[in-house]
């Protein structure tokens, strides 16, 4: 490691907090995620987290509920705030680390408003920073929020934790012949429609050559393995 710790962005979907069922907040799942974040922090990395809200509500449910898309997206943003506060409590109480939840939606009684300079200060003071509320705007995903915040705070790389061990040419859960990629370019992801992240998120990373690594978070040590072992997961660069 260099004298200055590497700054990483960890993107966690809401479904990861839901455990096997994928909805609600599963105590075992959120404790594993908190412990993984703590292990990365103790290894000397500066850690920022963007969290999704799909375990509680997804903006894409608008079609089924016949809701206005913007209203549904705002509900999804609020779900990410619930997850962010829950993760903060577990990290602080179980792992004894200092954290800050920063939201793109103004709710000062619950969390700090997102201010870039304050976020940078928290990271430099060795706090784990959890970004909630997406970008604060409807029609953007939390993947886009991760790319945006990663660029704003000068992260070196985005690690996207999933339930699959990398990027495949088709869904490995339904296709036994699915082929895993070790490395891809941004244009590969877009042209092959691999849906690693939405096109806006990929374009934002491509603009500054920020790598994205997709890996499986399933057991203790998964995140450090993804950071320190080049053979783990799939890297988009």
**Class by SSE composition:** alpha/beta
Question: Total domains, how many?
Answer: 1
Low-confidence stretches: none
Instruction: Give me the CATH fold name.
Output: Carbamate kinase
Mind telling me the CATH superfamily name? Acetylglutamate kinase-like
Sheet-strand content, in percent, reads: 15-25%
Helix content: 25-40%
Number of helices: 9
**Radius of gyration based on Cα positions:** 17 Å
CATH architecture call:
3-Layer(aba) Sandwich
Please identify the top-level CATH class: Alpha Beta
Order of helices and strands: EHHEHHEEHEHEEEEHHEHE
Terminal residue distance: 21 Å
Q: Assign an overall shape.
A: globular
Strand segment count: 11
Biggest sheet details = 9 strands, mixed
**Strand order in the sheet with the most strands:** 4-3-5-2-1-6-10-11-9
Residue-averaged pLDDT:
92
Protein model, in words:
The protein is of the alpha/beta class. It has a single domain (7-236), classed as Acetylglutamate kinase-like (Carbamate kinase). It has 9 helices and 11 strands. It has helices at residues 14-17, 27-42, 62-65, 69-95, 116-124, 142-153, 186-191, 199-207, 222-228; strands at 7-12, 46-51, 99-103, 112-113, 128-132, 157-162, 167-168, 180-181, 183-184, 212-216, 234-236. The strands form 2 sheets. The protein has a 9-stranded mixed sheet with strand order 4-3-5-2-1-6-10-11-9, sandwiched between helices. It has a two-stranded antiparallel sheet with strand order 7-8. α2 packs across α4 and α6 packs parallel to α8 (199-207). The longest helix has 27 residues, at 69-95.
């Amino acid at each position: 490691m260099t004298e200055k710790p590497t700054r990483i962005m960890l993107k966690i979907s809401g479904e990861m907090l839901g455990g096997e069922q994928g909805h609600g907040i599963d105590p075992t799942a959120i404790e594993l995620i908190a412990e993984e974040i703590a292990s990365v922090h103790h290894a000397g990395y500066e850690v920022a987290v963007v969290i999704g809200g799909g375990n509680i509500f997804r903006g894409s449910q608008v079609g089924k509920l016949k809701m206005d898309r913007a209203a549904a997206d705002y509900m999804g943003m609020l779900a990410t705030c619930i997850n962010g506060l829950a993760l903060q409590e577990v990290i602080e109480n179980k792992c004894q680390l200092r954290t800050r939840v920063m939201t793109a939606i103004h709710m000062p009684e619950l969390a700090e408003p997102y201010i870039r300079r304050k976020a940078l200060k928290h990271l430099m003071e060795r706090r784990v920073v959890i970004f909630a509320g997406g970008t604060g705007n409807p029609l953007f995903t939390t993947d886009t929020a991760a790319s945006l915040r990663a660029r704003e705070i000068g992260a070196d790389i985005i690690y996207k934790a999933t339930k699959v061990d990398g990027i495949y040419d088709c869904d490995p859960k339904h296709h036994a012949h699915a082929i895993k990629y070790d490395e891809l370019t941004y244009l590969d992801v877009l042209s092959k429609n691999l849906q690693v992240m939405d096109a806006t998120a990929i374009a934002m990373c491509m603009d500054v050559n920020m790598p994205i690594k997709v890996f499986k978070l399933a057991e203790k040590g998964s995140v450090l393995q993804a950071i320190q072992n080049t053979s783990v997961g799939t890297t988009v660069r």
